[in-house]
Design a protein that fits this description.
Strand content of chain A: 5-15%
CATH class of one domain in chain A: Mainly Alpha
Largest interface: A-B, 16 and 15 residues
Number of strands of chain A: 15
Order of helices and strands of chain B: HHEEEEHHHHHH
Keywords (chain B): ATP-binding, Nucleotide-binding, Transferase, Ubl conjugation pathway
Helix content of chain A: 40-55%
Number of domains of chain B: 1
GO molecular function (chain B): ATP binding; ubiquitin conjugating enzyme activity
Largest sheet of chain A: 4 strands, mixed
Strand order of the largest sheet of chain B: 1-2-3-4
Structural class of chain A: alpha+beta
InterPro entries (chain B): UBA (IPR015940), UBA-like_sf (IPR009060), UBC (IPR000608), UBC27_UBA (IPR041974), UBQ-conjugating_AS (IPR023313), UBQ-conjugating_enzyme/RWD (IPR016135)
Distance between the termini of chain B: 27 Å
CATH architecture of chain B: Roll
Oligomer: heterodimer
Distance between the termini of chain A: 37 Å
Number of helices of chain B: 8
Number of helices of chain A: 17
CATH topology of one domain in chain A: Four Helix Bundle (Hemerythrin (Met), subunit A)
Radius of gyration of chain B: 17 Å
CATH superfamily of chain B: Ubiquitin Conjugating Enzyme
Protein name (chain B): E2 ubiquitin-conjugating enzyme
Shape of chain A: extended
Shape of chain B: globular
Largest sheet of chain B: 4 strands, antiparallel
CATH architecture of one domain in chain A: Up-down Bundle
Family (chain B): Belongs to the ubiquitin-conjugating enzyme family.
CATH topology of chain B: Ubiquitin Conjugating Enzyme
């Protein structure tokens, strides 16, 4: 075991971060995050978001866009899987399975007969009022339209098949759009929306933001679906289960916890422990003092000791005609156990609640702290940089959060409900001690940090402000390290050895929950990263739909979208230019980027 | 709205080929074309041979863009048809429906289903179990049901025709109207009286 439990160690890492006085995040514990980050997909950028995938497929297979879309929808927007099928089964099979038909119809050139018999309405229709789909099947426009309307209303916009029996071909979306918009423009719009939203609905890398009222955004992640993200609307959530961010609890633990807190199971427990049901009306009766003869409001008298119905004549020690003194071991045991479970739950719930409440109270601190800082800024000329206050505050929020969710985690980790058979009692005890030590350390430091930040330091003299500053910076570093270590302990020592691999937690992020950045218009961030800068509005411009989405590059904040320090960082960072074209890593603290 | 023009044409088309296919479709009443009765002969060489099976057809508003609803009104012992309700488990009546199919082709598929049961995708689990495990018992039960339920109406039909003839209707007309309403005496009488 590492010796990270010693106090010295904490202070060491604390001092390390003191070296980089300006920024708590330049401590040694900072690990550069890998790969591109998550993106916000808005209504406007939805098309831009799928553009990259579409283009890859279009380029590799020299396809038109709607064919590429059909293929991608069929393969749930998993380009790698699509390519794997291509390699494994060949192009023809890939197309056939997805319902893509690229057949050249020679007879297109031949003059069409003046009228065509439509097999659906069984009428002769002028050729001009018919449409031949790519699969070669030709029907009249009004039948096609009717077919499309039924399918769109049926929620099948993404895969509208040809009307011919056993024809697997997917209808050309532009034909659908054109025909439907003639009679039902609203429905045609709906069709387009459904088609576009397939990218969100059918894609494991993309999820709707769960905010209510819904902000209309979706979030796209790159690799690990066990992560927590913040949408541009401000709502933070667990990408894996779409509920509120809850690490270091696993999704399953959190789900159970929420349910437990919500339903009355504990109330029921209380009732079992503290009441007995009336032998006549079966309502639970609580004894509020007095002797062992209890009367229910229904009028029935019964013995509190055995629960049996009795007469009303009694003394303090006995009830007339009634004697019970036999020990009912079973019942006692059950009550005992319910009581223990209840107390255990209450223990964890109280602490969880306490930290959640503190977190709420501290959120108010933000306002008062700003005031204190502005007072200090006015009167103090020697000390100009107050970023430590906000850094400390943010650290406090984050650690408080971790602490609060660590209680439901512990409740399930060391309880009987989930892992009863996974650990021996001995193992459990050792692990619980290990975890609780860390939790306590964290708790103590979080409280200290809270104390310093709540202090009226705007009234202090310079030396005392300097001292507070040192303390805050120091404690910020310590709590960050402690959080990191707690996550490591959970991942490696507690959840790691479990048989069932269903408990995964989002990794600890020193900088807080990742804020998804707006998708840039050039939607070719991958292309950009490979050092091939593209002008805005690049790519094929033939389809007007393609130009719908996206803001222009200049609308983007200068690459600081995912850094939650943005608002608090010293001004000079705001005008940082992105070094090396598209190489800017949104996860790097601005300082590191500067140095690069 | 139901494309009644097409339904009308389908009915005409179907009646032209009754001799060849043995499949009939007729409206339940004169009031609407949305409720129909289909009749299929039991396929030769199956336990259903010799029976005449009636199928209730209800056309949804979106017909032919939505599939017709079909249900056996004659009781039948078959793994893919409910022995209780007559519900049919057939893909073309669900997601595999295509507007290019017609009532006649759908009924032909139902007939084909009678010849080729698919016990792996059962509608009636009891029948399917029997089909797999005690095939001989299955065959005789299916035969018995055909005998009891699918032939009764055809046996009785002569009597009904006779009745109508006695009321003063020409025999051919009486027979065809009885057939078109699936052997229901009262409906046939109504039909004859109205036109």
């Amino acid at each position: 075991m590492e010796d990270f439990l010693s106090d010295d160690d904490y202070y060491d890492s604390g001092r390390d971060s003191l070296d980089g006085l300006e920024n708590e995040d330049s401590g040694p514990q900072w690990v550069p995050s890998k790969g591109p980050t998550c993106k916000v997909i808005t209504k406007e950028s939805l098309l831009a978001a799928q553009r990259e995938d579409l283009r890859r497929v279009m380029e590799l297979l020299s396809l038109r866009e709607h064919h590429a879309r059909t293929l991608l929808i069929h393969h749930r927007w998993d380009v790698e899987k699509l390519f794997a099928v291509l390699v494994e089964k060949g192009k023809a099979c890939l197309f056939k399975e997805a319902g893509v038909s690229i057949v050249e119809h020679r007879d297109l050139d031949a003059p069409p007969p003046p009228t065509v018999m439509c097999d659906i309405c069984i009428e002769d229709v002028p050729s001009g009022e018919t449409t031949k789909m790519e699969c070669g099947h030709c029907f009249c426009n009004s039948c096609w339209t009717e077919h499309f309307i039924v399918k769109i209303n049926d929620g099948q916009s993404k895969r509208i098949k040809c009307m011919a029996h056993k024809c697997n071909a997917i209808c050309d979306e532009s034909v659908v759009r054109n025909l439907v918009s003639k009679t039902n423009p609203d429905l045609a719009e709906k069709f387009d929306r459904f088609l576009l939203e397939s990218y969100i609905e059918d894609n494991k890398r993309v999820k709707w933001c769960p905010s209510t009222p819904h902000c209309g955004n979706a979030i796209r992640i790159e690799d690990d679906q066990f992560c927590e993200v913040e949408c541009s609307c401000g709502s933070q959530f667990c990408f894996s289960c779409s509920s509120e961010a809850h690490s270091p609890c696993s999704c399953l633990m959190w789900e159970l916890w929420v349910k437990k807190c919500r339903d009355e199971s504990e109330t029921v427990n209380w009732i079992t422990v503290h009441t007995k049901s009336c032998p006549k009306c079966h309502k639970p009766v609580e004894k509020n003092g007095g002797c062992n003869l209890v009367s229910c409001i229904c009028g029935q008298a019964f013995c509190w000791l055995c629960g049996g119905a009795t007469g009303r004549d009694h003394t303090w020690s006995s009830i007339a005609g009634h004697s019970c003194g036999r020990y009912k071991a079973d019942r006692e045991k059950k009550a005992e156990r319910a009581k223990r479970d209840l107390y255990r739950y209450m223990h964890y719930h109280n602490r969880y609640k306490a930290h959640t409440d503190s977190f709420k109270l501290e959120s108010k601190l933000k306002g008062t702290i700003q005031e204190k800082v502005s007072i200090l800024e006015e009167k103090e000329s020697k000390l100009r940089d107050f970023s430590w206050v906000n850094n400390g505050l943010n650290r406090l929020f984050r650690s408080r959060r971790v602490l609060s969710y660590s209680y439901p985690f512990a409740f399930y980790m060391f309880g009987d409900e989930l892992f009863k058979d996974e650990m021996t009692n001995e193992e459990r005890e050792i692990k619980q001690n290990l975890f609780e030590d860390q939790q306590q350390q964290l708790e103590a430091n979080v409280e200290k940090l809270s104390k310093f930040l709540e202090a009226p330091f705007n009234q202090y003299d310079v030396d005392k402000v300097m001292e507070t500053r040192m303390q805050v910076i120091n404690l910020s570093g310590i709590t960050d390290t402690l959080c990191q270590k707690m996550y490591e302990c959970i991942e490696n020592d507690l959840l790691g050895p479990l048989q069932l691999g269903i408990h995964n937690i989002a990794p600890y992020r020193s900088k807080g929950i990742e804020r998804a950045s707006e998708l840039s218009v050039c939607w070719g961030d991958k292309v950009n990263n490979s050092g091939k800068p593209l002008p805005p509005h690049c790519g094929s411009t033939a389809d007007p739909l393609l130009m719908l989405g996206g803001t222009t590059e200049s609308d983007q904040p200068s690459g600081s979208g995912s850094s939650d320090e943005t608002g608090y960082a010293p001004r000079k960072r705001a005008k940082t230019n992105v070094p090396g074209g598209g190489r800017f890593d949104l996860n790097l603290p601005a300082d590191v980027v500067d140095r690069n | 709205m139901i494309d009644f023009a097409r339904v009308q044409k389908e009915l005409q088309e179907c009646s032209k080929d009754v001799e060849g296919s043995g499949i009939r479709v007729a409206p339940k009443s004169d009031a609407t074309l949305a409720r129909l009765v289909g009749t299929i002969p039991g396929p030769i060489g199956t336990p259903y041979e010799g029976g005449t099976f009636q199928i209730d057809i209800t056309l949804p508003d979106g017909y032919p863009f939505e599939p017709p609803k079909m249900q056996f009104s004659t009781k039948v012992w078959h793994p893919n048809i409910s022995s209780q309700s007559g519900a049919i488990c057939l893909d073309i009546l669900k997601d595999q429906w295509s507007p290019a199919l017609t009532l006649k082709t759908a009924l032909l598929s139902v007939q084909a289903l009678l010849s080729a049961p698919q016990p792996d995708d059962p509608q009636d689990a009891v029948v399917a179990q029997q089909y797999i495990k005690q095939h001989q018992t299955f065959v005789s039960t299916a035969q018995y049901w055909t005998e009891t339920f699918a032939k009764a109406s055809s046996r009785g039909i002569e009597e009904k025709v006779q009745k109508l003839v006695e009321m003063g209707f020409p025999e051919a007309q009486a027979r065809s109207s009885l057939e078109s309403v699936g052997g229901d005496e009262n409906l046939a009488l109504e039909k004859l009286c109205s036109g």
